[in-house]
């Protein structure tokens, strides 16, 4: 049966980068992928058109889809909306929560051609291949109570950092299984020296470990992990952590790969239904100028083919096509350096499609 893919371009550079990823999806369909595409509104685009960042019609389409491709949401235009439930980011968080997309996979992989594009020394990053497994539907992002209110004559803002054992266990199992398929090393990142919620997190990870004797589990505090990621990133294989720590560490890891414009992601639920999006945001500073790197979004399509559509051969073809384009020296501005050829967002997308036909 034909698979349903929902495309949600969103805001800022979202429409530019998803347009390139859709070109690649179309090339996959021409190569035999049986899939139908439909579009929907999310984020600021949803708010502007329908008064809500996650319109009912979008949520219904998302629930019915096998996979979702999302560009990015947010931007200064909506940053001052008084009603916090209408902010673009709430559309994205709502999709994650409604579809129960608790497992966020963020692979930081350095294409060898980009060793010079990283701000770190080539020998520090060459051969880098880390998988960050970020819990996505719990933790401080969703904990109750939360709010801003007046206490003793001044306003206070508060959030709740909470995880249940079952939430920790299910993300832990995803990470252990991922480590089994990769290099057999799992580093759980927490703040168990200070926060009770992560004392429990560490306990549950330790409890799971004997079930995965082929995986070597270690623990690291998040502040040290941030430092180690830039000091010696190749010590990591799979990293598992909570929602907020994972958000922050994955942006840091992105820079190891040359640019945040290179980092794709998959967000999965228990049925392997998934939402695929670049790790970066809507980049308002470069929106509409053809400067955005579409490769994170294109590589997110490869993850979609692999994890939700059962088409790993096509996924590998996309990844090889990206490699070939980089071999040819084509670079968007964020990864360009002397000796390479700077191209626009659309030129990069077209080049990947052309290479896809060859590889
Ligand atoms: P950002 O990731 O949008 O941008 C950070 C920096 O990286 C900017 O200088 C930007 O130009 C650059 N950058 C990002 N993507 C790039 C790409 N593909 N190619 C080249 N350069 C790229 O983060 P921000 O500026 O903190 O946030 C901007 C908006 O995006 C905010 O509204 C934020 O809430 C939202 N956001 C959305 C998502 C998402 O939709 N998943 C993720 C992060 C941030
Ligand atoms: C991301 C983003 C989101 C997050 C925001 C936009 C809600 O930063 O996908 O990394 O914090 O998860
Ligand atoms: Mn983020």
Automatic annotation (TrEMBL):
Binding residues annotated for substrate, in chain numbering: 96, 106, 134, 223
E.C. code: 1.1.1.85
Residues holding Mg(2+): 223, 247, 251
Domain of life: Bacteria
Keyword field contains RNA-binding: no
Annotated localization: Cytoplasm
Molecular functions per Gene Ontology: 3-isopropylmalate dehydrogenase activity
Residue numbers marked as site, Important for catalysis: 141, 191
Residue intervals of the Isopropylmalate dehydrogenase-like domain: 4-352
Cofactors, names only: Mn(2+); Mg(2+)
The entry's keywords: Amino-acid biosynthesis, Branched-chain amino acid biosynthesis, Cytoplasm, Leucine biosynthesis, Magnesium, Manganese, Metal-binding, NAD, Oxidoreductase
Reactions catalysed, as given in the entry: (2R,3S)-3-isopropylmalate + NAD(+) = 4-methyl-2-oxopentanoate + CO2 + NADH
Amino acids binding NAD(+): 281-293
UniProt pathway annotation: Amino-acid biosynthesis; L-leucine biosynthesis; L-leucine from 3-methyl-2-oxobutanoate: step 3/4
Major localisation: cytoplasm
Co-factor note (free text): Binds 1 Mg(2+) or Mn(2+) ion per subunit.
Signal peptide: none
UniProt xrefs under Pfam families: Iso_dh
PANTHER family xrefs: 3-ISOPROPYLMALATE DEHYDROGENASE
Record family assignment: Belongs to the isocitrate and isopropylmalate dehydrogenases family. LeuB type 1 subfamily.
Record-linked NCBIfam families: leuB
Assembly with partners or alone: Homodimer.
Function: Catalyzes the oxidation of 3-carboxy-2-hydroxy-4-methylpentanoate (3-isopropylmalate) to 3-carboxy-4-methyl-2-oxopentanoate. The product decarboxylates to 4-methyl-2 oxopentanoate.
Protein name: 3-isopropylmalate dehydrogenase
Origin species: Salinicola endophyticus
């Amino acid at each position: 049966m034909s698979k349903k893919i929902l495309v949600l371009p969103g805001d800022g550079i979202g429409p530019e980068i998803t347009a390139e990823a859709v070109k690649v999806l179309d090339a996959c369909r021409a190569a035999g992928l049986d899939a139908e595409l439909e579009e929907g509104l999310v984020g600021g685009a949803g708010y502007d058109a329908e008064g809500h960042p996650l319109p009912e019609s979008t949520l219904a389409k998302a629930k019915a889809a096998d996979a979702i491709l999302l560009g990015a949401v947010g931007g200064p235009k909506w940053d001052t909306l008084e009603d916090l439930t209408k902010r673009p980011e709430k559309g994205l968080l709502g999709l994650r929560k409604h579809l129960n997309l608790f497992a966020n996979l963020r692979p930081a992989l350095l294409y060898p051609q980009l060793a010079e594009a990283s701000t770190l020394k080539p020998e520090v990053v060459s051969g880098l291949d880390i998988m960050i497994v970020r819990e996505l539907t719990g933790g401080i992002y969703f904990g109750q109570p939360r709010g801003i209110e007046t206490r003793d004559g001044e306003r206070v803002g508060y959030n709740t950092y909470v995880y249940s054992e079952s939430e920790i266990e299910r993300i832990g199992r995803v990470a252990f299984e991922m480590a089994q398929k990769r290099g057999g090393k799992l580093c759980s990142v927490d703040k168990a020296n200070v926060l009770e919620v992560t004392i429990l997190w560490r306990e549950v990870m330790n409890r799971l470990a004997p079930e995965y004797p082929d995986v070597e589990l270690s623990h690291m505090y998040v502040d040290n992990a941030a430092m180690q990621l830039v000091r010696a990133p190749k010590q990591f294989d799979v990293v598992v952590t909570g929602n907020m720590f994972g958000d922050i560490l994955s942006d840091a890891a992105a820079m190891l790969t040359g640019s945040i414009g290179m980092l794709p992601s998959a967000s999965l639920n228990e049925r392997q239904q998934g939402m695929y999006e670049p790790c970066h945001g809507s980049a308002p500073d470069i929106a509409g100028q053809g400067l955005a790197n579409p490769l994170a979004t294109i590589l997110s399509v490869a993850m979609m083919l692999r994890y939700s559509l059962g088409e790993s051969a096509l996924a590998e073809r996309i990844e090889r096509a990206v490699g070939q384009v980089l071999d040819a020296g084509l670079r968007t501005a964020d990864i360009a350096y002397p000796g390479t050829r700077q191209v626009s967002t659309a030129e990069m997308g077209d080049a990947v499609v052309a290479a896809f036909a060859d590889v």
